[in-house]
Amino acid sequence: MQTAVIEKRLSEALCLAVQHLEGLSSTEEFFWGWEVPKDPSFGDLSSPVSFRIAASLKTPPQVIAQKLADKFLTYCEAAGIASWVDRACAQSGFLNVYLSHTVLVDVVREVLRRKSGYGKRQNRSSAAINLEFVSANPTGPLSVAHGRQAAVGDVLARLLRSQGLRVTKEYYLNDEGRQIEMLGRSLKARYLNELGISEPFPEEGYHGLYVIDHAKKCVRRFGSSLKAAPLRRFMELGMQDQLLEIKSVLKKFGLQFDRWTSQRWLRTSGRIEQALQQLQQKGALYEAEGATWFASTRYGDDKDRVIRKRDGELTYLAPDIAYHLWKFQKGYQKLLNLWGPDHHGYIARVKAAMKALNLPADRLLVRITQLVTLTRHGKPVPMSKRQGEFVTFREVLDEVGVDATRFFYLMRTLDSPLDFDLDLAKSQSQENPVYYVQYAHARICSILSKSRLPLRQRLRPNLNLLCEPEERMLLRWLFQYPITLRLCADAFEPHGLTVFLRKLSESFHVFYTKHRVILDDPQRSAARLVLIRATQGVIANGLSLLGISAPRKM
User: Are residues 454 and 522 in the same domain?
Assistant: First the structure.
């Protein structure tokens, strides 16, 4: 029986219990999705519905939860699913449900039947989401902060797709403007210096060694033929080189974007001017102090914003407005952007522009991805040896590998700063969380390879023999895997999957420490072999969604 069906039927029973509470209208709607209790002793499923209806009933959540617990089994019996539930109780305002052994062992069969499809929703949704992330300007190598966005965005897309949503992974390329000009000036100065020609370096130029490296490549490729080349030529060369580097490191990371959208294309296609014309027609622009302003305070921003400077140059806000307008015109139901903490102030002004254009600003969701601190030997890593200014994303990949980099980037929620311990990420020990999870998978593969049970016993195991506490804990985690995926996707927060995999692996290691799998008793051996094979499948599925390998030997 599918976990989704169990959730749905239990939700229907809970809905009836809630509707029959005295003082609550049966027409009121609430979210019935179940959650996973953080403490296994609190049950297999948990509902926070008491908190959502407490204000309507003017009753403390714990009192409501107790009333629901007293009646829940009655409504389960009326729905013909009483055998699914052992008991229900109230705990700190939550309704906690303990599932029957029959339901939990049936999950093993579902895992083995659906294999890599377990946890994924089979019905494909028509909802389309545009997920824009990384989007670093092509003026230098990707930083470790960009790497965190790459990990979060890629795994979030995988999670959303696993739940039946259509996702477009998009990189917005700021390929024109002052920063590109400054890159060109920096490259030109370094190039001329390499030729022995004195050329002052721009005060606001890019001082990284990568610019010097590129200048040397230009000398090898072009010789002195670029001495009289215009600035535009160096801007193009500099941007092309950095874009190649960005795409190269993303490929190494296992990330491929579905679409790259260019700011230059937005301008040359006329979409920026079209967006400004629409704002003008709606009376959202005005002239003051020789500049054009967007009256964003009318739409929830804290102050009006300049959109065209006195010299006629557009601010960054103009292409941002055109870009989001264009994405809405493409028909996406939701726009999801992952931005760095330095872009927090842009959220209100972009949403204001969407409101001014009569677009659904509530369908624009921006998640801020906090910064990363690298540590080695317990101390922050100050700078890169090669770059001279900052540690690059590529350097982290080269040092610790793709698997550890992905897992470590996802071990905290997006809004929490991340401490990335390089020493721990490289270690092959149980303290290293990705090694711990991968080792659980490899250990199960090793056990399964040693099994020599007859085919009949392997195909028809007696799963009712899985009654030890450690066995039940494994069954519980297998059941909760699809719920974990749903919760992570609904919250646009993939870190919960790393938490789940660590707990599932821990439960397996505890089980394996206390119980032998291959025994003289063939029936019990068969049951345990099926249990760990299902566990192996779920670990592999979870690692696959993270873009991490599931080794069979370690």
Answer: yes
**Cross-strand bridge partners of residue 339:** 368
Q: Which residue has the higher pLDDT, 122 or 251?
A: 251
Say yes or no to pLDDT of 458 above 80: no
What per-residue confidence (pLDDT) applies to 38? 87
Place of tokens 């494994």: 474
pTM: 0.94
Do 458 and 532 fall within a single domain? yes
The helix/strand/coil state of 10 is helix
**Residue 22 CB contacts under 8 Å (≥ 6 apart), including other chains:** none
- Where on the phi/psi map is residue 205: left (φ > 0), alpha (ψ -120 to 50), or beta? beta
Q: 542, 125, 95: which is closest to 334 by C-alpha?
A: 125
Question: How many domains does the structure of the chain reveal?
Answer: 4
Q: Which domain holds residue 474?
A: 428-546
Residue 124 has pLDDT above 80, yes or no: no
Let me know whether 239 and 205 are in one domain: yes
CA angle 161, 165, 167 (to 5 degrees): 70
Rg (CA), the chain: 28
Interatomic CA distance for residues 185 and 251, integer angstroms: 29
Annotate 367-411 with DSSP letters as a single string: EE---EEEEETTEE----TTTSS--BHHHHHHHH-HHHHHHHHTS
Q: What percent of the chain has pLDDT over 90?
A: 86
For 85, 272, 356, the CA distances from 279, given in Å and listed in that order, are: 57, 11, 7
